[in-house]
Amino acid sequence: MTHHERSFRTKALILKRRDFGEADRLLTILTPSRGKLEVVAKGARKPTSTKTGHVELFTKADMLISKGRNLDLVSQAEMIAPYLPLRESLERGAYANYVTELTDRFIAEADDVNNQAVFELLDTAFDRLCQDEDVRLVTRYFELRLLDLTGFRPELQQCVISYQQVQPEDQYFSFAEGGVVTPAHAHHATAITPINMVTLKVLRHLQRSAYGQIQSLQIAPALHTDLERVLLGYITHILERKLQSVDFIRKIRL
Q1: For residue 48, what are the domain limits?
Q2: Domain assignment of residue 125, yes or no
Q3: What is the radius of gyration, based on Cα positions, of the chain?
Q4: CB-based burial, 46-61: b 16+ in 10 Å, e otherwise
Q5: Nearest to 82 by CA among 65, 100, 61, 96
């Protein structure tokens, strides 16, 4: 919000929602052109409030936001997309929580920052998590696209140490260098982990392909676990912290 602007209307994806004061809700939202914001929905916890039901977690809403003394205020809110399965299914909700936490960690809170591409990516991920059978595939695709958009695209084609094209054999992945390392150069890299050729091929396919081209992939649970190991290891290294939502996903998977 600019200095002279008292209010603006925007679409918003609700990333987090906390009780605030006696009857309010504090929301963390992602907007297409204003970036990530913290806003207060006054009286949203009152059953009679016009905002009740329009500021649910993992939903898309149209909001009128006004300048407040300390925090900006949601003057009006109308839900556009409820994404109900994300709150009705434990598994789908767990993965929605993960992609929102990931977005929250990668996107800094800022005013007047254009995050149209990230907004569309998360919005599409919510939709796919509602409908698609393989939520793990939806999530891996989301991770790779988010890494692209935030400047952390992993190098999967050539060795990040020697810059040579990798051969069709098992390799290593360096979390610190951000990509594949050949066995011959593994001793030069730090924070490395083995990556077999099948896992690498699938990651390459996910990275270069449109979602429609990978949507029907049938991925075995063991391969899913290995894809997750590599990507989550890289993401954790970048963020320098564990993601809270990961433990819950692992618990419900048992």
Answers
A1: 7-81
A2: no
A3: 20
A4: eeebebbebbbbbbbb
A5: 61
* Residue 182 · residue 169 · CB < 8 Å: no
**Cα dist. 204→71, 179, 189, 217 in Å?**
43, 11, 21, 14
176 within some domain: yes
> How many domains does the structure of the chain reveal?
2
- Of the candidates 153, 160, 151, the residue with the CA atom closest to the CA atom of residue 191: 160
Give kind and range of the element (H or E) at residue 129: helix 116-131
Q: pTM score, two decimals? A: 0.92
The answer on 136 and 59 residing in a single domain is: no
CATH number at residue 29: 2.40.50.140
Q: What is the pLDDT along the chain (254 residues), one digit of tens a residue?
A: 454 578 999 999 999 998 877 778 899 999 999 889 999 888 665 665 555 566 889 999 999 999 877 888 998 889 999 999 999 999 999 999 999 999 999 998 765 667 899 999 999 999 999 999 999 999 999 999 999 999 999 999 999 999 999 998 999 999 999 999 999 999 999 999 999 999 999 999 999 999 999 999 999 999 999 999 999 999 999 999 999 999 999 999 86
Q: Which of 11, 20, 69, 67 is nearest to 41 (CA)?
A: 20
**Neighbour-count burial of 154, counting CB atoms closer than 10 A to its CB (0-12 exposed, 13-18 middle, 19+ buried):** buried
> CA nearest 232: which of 126, 139, 116, 158?
139
Tell whether 166 and 225 lie within a shared domain: yes
Do 140 and 249 belong to one domain? yes
